[in-house]
Design goal:
The complex is a heterodimer of chains A (115) and B (113). With 115 residues, chain A is an all-beta fold. Helices cover 0% and strands 55% of the residues of chain A. Chain A is globular, with a radius of gyration of 13 Å. Chain B has 113 residues and is mainly β. Chain B contains no helices and 11 strands. In chain B, strands 2, 4, 5, 9, 10 and 11 form a 6-stranded mixed β-sheet that branches. A 5-stranded antiparallel β-sheet of chain B has the order 1-3-8-7-6, with no helix packed on it. In chain B, a hairpin with a 4-residue loop joins strand 4 and strand 5. The chains are: A mainly beta (115), B mainly beta (113). Chains A and B meet through strand 5 and strand 10 of A and strand 4, strand 5, strand 9 and strand 10 of B.
């Protein structure tokens, strides 16, 4: 059983398109995150949701809109894709209190390529 | 601004060598320091260190935190080709009643046979 699953694994799309990445966790965790990893392997947090509520929103362009229909799902919608959005996007989850104990689990990532 | 810096950025060694990876941090509301190993896909958790001076060990890997000097090291002894990966260090900070990981840029380790 996959703990944190993301779809799709690969996404190639043209500039200007709108695309979504889905994430689901079956760990019963309260908190979910989106991280972006650039070509230099630098992982940076984008958003954090706790029990469907937006907790952390880093300085991410408005073209990125997360949506959490329930605490097991956190989707990422990107409008008007740009070349600079090309990266690997990782979803992660943690129990709210377990975040204090490093209980983060990452999905396997979605490699987005904008051409 | 929160910052986590790792060194070296890359390292090439031969099997059997011992390596030391460094991580320094400057973050506010610091709670813990975490190490992850990333091969092809998702980062996988190695250690979390919260207290200074207490070494954590898992097989050939060990790590220690110095909260006074704001750094951590990850040691790998008797390296194997399977240790080849990107090693990520992250500071766990507490904001808005939730945790956030601030990652360093990673150290790419290549172990040659």
């Amino acid at each position: 059983d996959t703990a944190v699953s993301q779809t799709p694994k690969y996404l190639v799309t043209q500039m200007g398109n709108d695309k979504s990445i889905k994430c689901e966790q079956n760990l019963g965790h309260d908190t979910m995150y989106w991280y972006k990893q650039d070509s230099k392997k630098f992982l940076k947090i984008m958003f954090s949701y706790n029990n469907k509520e937006l907790i952390i929103n880093e300085t991410v362009p408005n073209r990125f809109s997360p949506k959490s229909p329930d605490k097991a799902h956190l989707n990422l919608h990107i409008n008007s894709l740009e070349l600079g959005d090309s990266a690997v996007y990782f979803c992660a989850s943690s129990p709210r209190t377990g975040a204090r104990f490093g209980g983060y689990t990452f999905g396997s990532g979605t490699r987005l390529t904008v051409v | 601004e929160d910052k986590v810096v790792q060194s070296p950025l890359s390292l090439v060694v031969h099997e059997g060598d011992t390596v030391t990876l460094n991580c320094s941090y400057e973050v506010t509301n610091f709670r813990s320091l975490l190490w992850y190993k990333q091969e092809k896909k998702a980062p996988t958790f190695l250690f979390m260190l919260t207290s200074s001076g207490i070494e954590k060990k898992s097989g050939r890997l060990s790590s220690i935190l110095d909260k006074k000097e704001l750094f951590s090291i990850l040691n790998i002894t008797a390296t194997q080709t399977g240790d080849s990966a990107v090693y990520l260090c992250a500071g766990l900070v507490w904001r808005s009643n939730t945790g956030k990981l601030i990652f360093g840029q990673g150290t790419t380790l290549q172990v040659k046979p």
